[in-house]
Amino acid sequence: MENSKKYLLLLTLLVSVFSIYNFTIYTSKSDYGTIHLSKKAINGENIWLKNNCNSCHQLYGLGGYLGPDLTNIYSTKGKGEVYIKAFIESGVKAMPKFDLSEKEKDDLVQFLKEADQTGYYPNIDANIKPNGWVSIKYKNQNYENK
Ligand code: HEC
């Protein structure tokens, strides 16, 4: 076979492999499941955003850094609903108090509760396997790597 045909064949092969690769990557579904917040929690998320809780607090490490991360505040021993509400109602040194209705506070707590159920932060049990994959601790079976 003459050289130019060889190059053409090689180019066709590379373009095909590249196309298949892209098709596979962009059409395969992720293993992370879908997060479905309840209506109450979505309402709570809006209250969270409207009151700028995220300007001082983080979820999964993202947010402002004046206050602590609240990803797992709901399930932390000794904290939880009453504790969260107490902070909202009275504030502390650097945290202002928020004048929210009972329903708004309930929704906000529901948001933090459902956010908490999605995982752990920081994920201290993360483990780098010899093959390079990282295995982390999951809370919800939907997010388990298969
Ligand atoms: C101006 C910054 C600021 C804003 C805005 C803010 N916080 Fe805070 N928050 C803090 C700081 C700082 C602390 C830590 C206070 C301390 O322990 O002395 C804190 C503590 C907390 C705690 C206790 C955390 C723990 O681990 O013990 C909760 C719960 C909390 N905030 C909820 C909220 C919610 C909900 C909102 C929104 C409605 C909010 N905060 C808005 C600054 C803020």
Automatic annotation (TrEMBL):
<feature type="domain" description="Cytochrome c">
    <location>
        <begin position="39"/>
        <end position="116"/>
    </location>
</feature>
<protein>
    <submittedName>
        <fullName>Nitric oxide reductase subunit C</fullName>
    </submittedName>
</protein>
<dbReference type="InterPro" id="IPR009056">
    <property type="entry name" value="Cyt_c-like_dom"/>
</dbReference>
<dbReference type="Pfam" id="PF13442">
    <property type="entry name" value="Cytochrome_CBB3"/>
</dbReference>
<keyword id="KW-0479">Metal-binding</keyword>
<dbReference type="GO" id="GO:0009055">
    <property type="term" value="F:electron transfer activity"/>
</dbReference>
<keyword id="KW-0349">Heme</keyword>
<dbReference type="InterPro" id="IPR036909">
    <property type="entry name" value="Cyt_c-like_dom_sf"/>
</dbReference>
<dbReference type="GO" id="GO:0020037">
    <property type="term" value="F:heme binding"/>
</dbReference>
<dbReference type="GO" id="GO:0046872">
    <property type="term" value="F:metal ion binding"/>
</dbReference>
<keyword id="KW-0408">Iron</keyword>
